[in-house]
Amino acid sequence: MSGADLADTIAAMWPLSWVHPEDANTISIEHQFYFGPALMVSPVVNENSTSVTFYVPNATYYDFFDLTPVQGSGSEITVDDVGYETIPLHILGGSIIPLRTGNANTTAQNRELPFDIVVAPNATGQAYGELRLDDGISLDVGDNFSNVTMTFVNNTLNIAGTFGYDGASTVQMVVFAGQTENKTVSLDGQVAADQLYDAEKQTLSAWNLNLKLGEHTVTLA
To answer: What DSSP state is assigned to residue 26?
Structure first.
């Protein structure tokens, strides 16, 4: 997923304690934070260091860059060989993240880029995400916006909402993390032509979808 940009979603710097109020250990953590409710950022803060020790709450996570699962236990872990241009970044289980893929130099160009949707289930196999789309420029967009909800339950991803944004919005790939066995991906009842299961990373991907963003159902069977 290198080079992918986060799509339009609720994004701001959140303390870990906001996402994990039940965990008293998160209250005193200063250097880690969440970008929105789904992405845990654990930066290297020591000069010239390529190693970082950070706290992982008792939850399921996935490495943002390769989607390998990381099971937190409310304790610290150490990651070595962190590149100078890399920040340890993890997706909290239970999240669905839409990502713009490709490169753009302007807001208008960015709005033309397709989406990849990453489904990162929690320990009970569920996930949820939201996406709002508009032209990114107008102060008053009127009815020209879309509010999209994405829910993953019982091996089924449902995409629903309102789709008033008239810009070009397509989904090129859907990636399901945390899959311990191979399954068949079907889109609106039709088996996806291009799909692949990676047993090592536990990911199941369907691509070349060229799917107009709207109401859809993606099932794993």
So the answer is: G
Residue that wins the pLDDT comparison between 174 and 113: 174
Per-residue pLDDT, 10:
52
Contact 70, 56 (CB under 8 A): yes
Sign of CA dihedral 211, 69, 89, 126: positive
Give the span between the Cα atoms of 184 and 196, in whole angstroms.
9
Q: Which two tokens stand for residue 52?
A: 């970082």
Tell me the β-bridge partners of 69. Answer: 62
What 8-state DSSP symbol labels residue 152?
E
Q: How far is CA 80 from CA 44, 77, 95, in A?
A: 10, 10, 26
Residue 30 has pLDDT above 60, yes or no: yes
Cα of first residue to Cα of last residue in the chain, in angstroms, is 25
Contacts 24+ apart (CB under 8 A), 48-53: 49/82, 50/80, 50/81, 50/82, 50/83, 50/84, 51/78, 51/79, 51/80, 51/81, 51/82, 52/78, 52/79, 52/82, 52/88, 53/77, 53/78, 53/79
From the list 99, 80, 216, 72, the residue with the least C-alpha distance to 158 is 216
Res. 51: pLDDT tops 60: yes
Provide the b/e sequence for 140-160 (b: ≥16 CB within 10 Å).
eeeeebbebebbbeeeebebe
* Interstrand relation of 39-41 and 33-35 (parallel, antiparallel or unpaired): antiparallel
| DSSP code, position 25 | G
Q: Which residue in the block uniquely carries the two structure tokens 């879309």?
A: 146
Report how far apart, in Å, the C-alpha atoms of 157 and of each of 51, 56, 66, 207 are.
37, 27, 21, 15
